[in-house]
Amino acid sequence: MKLRFTLPILFAFVFQVSWLNSVEAQDPHFSQFYAAPSQLNPAMTGVFEGRWRFHANYRDQWRSVMETTPFRTVAAGFDMRYNIVGNDFVGIGISALADQGGTSHFRTNRGHISAAYMKQVGGGRYRTDDQYLIAGGSFGFGQNSIDNRLWFSQQYDIGAGFPITSNSSGEVFDNEDVLSSDIYLDFNAGLMYYALFGDNTSIYAGAAMNHLNSPNISLLENGNEQLYTRWIGHAGGEIPFTTELSILPAVQVMGQGPSFESTFGANFRYSNHDWYELAIRAGLWARMANTISGQNVDAMIVTAILEMERWNLGISYDITTSSLKEANNSRGAVELSLIYTHPAKSRIKVNCPKF
User: Fold this and answer.
1) Where in 42-130 does DSSP place strands (E)?
2) Residue 1 pLDDT class (50, 70, 90 cuts)
3) Where are the alpha helices (DSSP H) in the chain?
């Protein structure tokens, strides 16, 4: 039997090896970061126009190369808001994230409880020019694991042209089927400010620090592999063109250890302003990341979002623009988002920006 190496197979192998060396200290991300508030900033807990909110996100990446073992990320969150005194509020929420990918089925599972205090720092009689400063934090638990499906150079039969996985790998975990880290504590904190200048005009900015305690996520007994602290900055707003049409620009920048990434762009929003409001959004975004050759545009992201009263349904597609496009034919990732917001009673209603 002769082993044939095509470019996608070679890329998958190299990508898998490099991923195994680095992903354990990195976080998954969403292109629709503005639709994943619990993963973006704990200060966004309770920042929505409603009584309570549920959101869910799904991302499927590198399927064109990894075939049956693509990178999949699922996240969900639920949060509520309570009036404390005057026009100040407290938001509380819960969230969960599950990420899996690659031949080894490397898994990251996390769950958090979050809380935020919303302090009104400006506002008028009709609440259309509110300003709020929000501080939030979250704590939770996480665990990483892999299935021991890896093979090493000691198991490779050069003559046959393929690995003999029944041979010993020579690694300390050779006889273990699953490798798992200890369950670890995880702490995050964030700040956010927003201001409204009318029904369709707003600005916001926020910052967060995740994994403040740099937990040990080593898969080996008595190992020490700390999860890098991740910092995030994000900002955006809404600018109206007419009463029906507006643009929602936004940017996210984040760094974790040696990695840096930024996503920026805008969605155009059109609303019919009927009693049962229907709105559509469409946009274009770019993601930059540091690679071996420096900062490059890694992907262009096209988005479409449908708003139906209490529901937001979003879909996006990452078009690879880096040199990896030669391996995946520019097919990067597909992403889905869903947000449901339950209406609030008028006496506890809060006006918030559109994200």
Assistant:
1) 52-61, 71-85, 88-101, 106-122
2) very low
3) 7-22, 37-40, 63-66, 325-328
Please report the sign of the dihedral spanned by the C-alpha atoms of residue 64, residue 68, residue 70, residue 74: positive
Written as six digits, the tokens of 83 are 């009036």
Residue 195 within a domain:
yes
How many structural domains compose the chain?
1
pLDDT in tens, 304-319: 999 998 999 999 999 9
Judge whether 118 lies within some domain: yes
Q: Quick one: three-class SS letters along 258-281?
A: CEEEEEEEEEEEEECCCCCCEEEE
pLDDT score of 166: 67
What is the SS3 assignment for 236?
A: strand
Question: Measured between alpha carbons, how far apart are the two ends of the chain, in Å?
Answer: 55
Q: Phi then psi for 153, rounded to 5 degrees? A: -60, -30
pLDDT at residue 18, rounded to an integer: 39
Q: Is residue 297 part of a domain?
A: yes
Structural domain that includes position 238: 7-348
Q: What are phi and psi of 25, to 5 degrees?
A: -110, 15
In a domain, 355, yes or no: no
Evaluate whether 40 touches 232 at the Cβ level (below 8 Å): yes
Query: Domain of 299: which CATH number?
Result: 2.40.160.40
Reported as a pLDDT band with limits 50, 70 and 90, residue 277 is confident
* Distance of alpha carbon 81 from alpha carbon 118, whole angstroms: 9
